[in-house]
Every structure is written in C-alpha cells, then in structure tokens.
Design brief:
Number of helices: 4
Largest sheet: 4 strands, antiparallel
Distance between the termini: 45 Å
Structural class: alpha+beta
Strand order of the largest sheet: 1-4-5-6
Number of domains: 2
Shape: globular
Strand content: 15-25%
Helix content: 40-55%
CATH topology of the largest domain: Substrate Binding Domain Of DNAk, Chain A, domain 1
CATH architecture of the largest domain: Sandwich
Order of helices and strands: EEEEEEHHHH
C-alpha cells in the first residue's frame, strides 16, 4: 500500500499520484482508499473504492492515470482518477463523519504499526520482489516482439524462460523474498546476454 497523505498532514491539502495499468489492453482500474498506518492494505480501514472505465487500450504501463487526493478545511476527502489520454474521470467523496477512524482507532493502529514494523517491512520487500519478477518477464516479452533481428532459437529460449517464470509464479504464491529474487536473477541471466547480442548486431 502506498501512503499518499501521512498522518497529521496540515489541511487543506492536495496530493497527486500517477498510476498505470498492470495488464495489456486493460479497460478499467480499481482505486481503493484506506486509512491506517500499516503497509499491508488489509490491515487498514477501507474508506471506499471506485472503478475508472474507458481507459486508453495500450500495453501495460503505458496509460497515465492521475489520482488526486484533496482534503478541504473541514476534513472532507475527495479522491479522483483521470485517464490522461481519454480524459475519462471518476471520483468519490469521503466525509469526516462517515467511515473515518476515531481517535481511539488511530492510536491503536499507530501502536500496531510499531509492533508489526519488521513484519510489514518483510511483506513489503516480498511484494516488491514479486512485482520485479513479473515486470521483468513482461518487459522481456515486449522487448522480444520489438527486436526483428533476434534469432529464432534465441526468441524461443527467452519465450520458454518467460513461460517457466510465469508458471513458477502461479505455483509459488507464498514464496519468500529470496526465492523471488533468485528467480529474477535466473531469468535475467538467460535474457540479458541474448538481448545485448541482438541489439549489438542491430547497431552494427
């Protein structure tokens, strides 16, 4: 979970984050808003959620989605998401009285965040390592499709390595940080030399 508005931020305030898609030709994105102190989203309080549809159909990571968090002087939070290309927009309003945490709940969450700080950091590192493997595999798939001079045998070698990595991800949802990191290095050791050679041949 990404912290956008830290606790005790002076209001009124406005924060903008740029998001994107995680799949090719993704038509919509789900935005969830939480209040709390923990890195793990489910350990915080869900304030609301909405779906932004009508996105630009493109490869994963290409669309730019501007997510704005604006809090007025009365503590009312307005969250909006807008696709920069299509200008499609969706928003929701969260009032101070509805759904927000009480002072007692906030104090409790602060104590829990300190208590589980190491566990949360470990979870965060594991999630980032998993995403790194997924992103690298997807990037290699896109790279291969844009290297016309890549030899067929090398293209198949990378394709098989990507399939193995994807299969491993599906079969090891509870893997540890080191395991995700090792799988990423394994895939890099196969793909990077091939891609470097193909790009070198293309530039010569």
């Amino acid at each position: 979970m990404v912290i956008v508005i830290p606790r005790n931020t002076t209001i009124p305030s406005k924060k903008v984050k740029i998001g994107t898609t995680v799949c090719n030709h993704q038509k919509e994105v789900l935005t969830k808003v939480y209040e709390g102190e923990r890195t793990i989203a489910k350990e915080n309080k869900l304030l609301g959620q909405f779906v932004l549809s009508g996105l630009q159909l493109a490869a994963r990571g290409v669309p730019e989605i501007l997510v704005c968090f604006e809090t007025d002087a009365n503590g009312i939070l307005i969250v909006s998401a807008r696709d920069k290309k299509t200008r499609q927009q969706k928003m929701m309003t969260i009032t101070r009285d509805n759904y927000r945490l009480s002072k007692w709940e906030i104090e409790k969450m602060v104590k829990e965040a300190e208590k589980y700080k190491l566990e949360d950091e470990e979870f965060k590192n594991k999630v980032e390592a998993k995403m790194a493997l997924e992103n690298y595999a997807n990037d290699m798939r896109n790279t291969v499709s844009h290297l016309p001079k890549l030899e067929l045998v090398d293209k198949k070698k990378i394709g098989n390595a990507i399939k193995q990595a994807k299969r491993w991800l599906n079969e090891n949802q509870l893997a540890k940080f080191d395991e995700y990191r090792d799988q990423t290095k394994r895939l890099e050791n196969i793909c990077n030399p091939i891609i470097a050679k193909a790009r070198g041949d293309g530039s010569g």
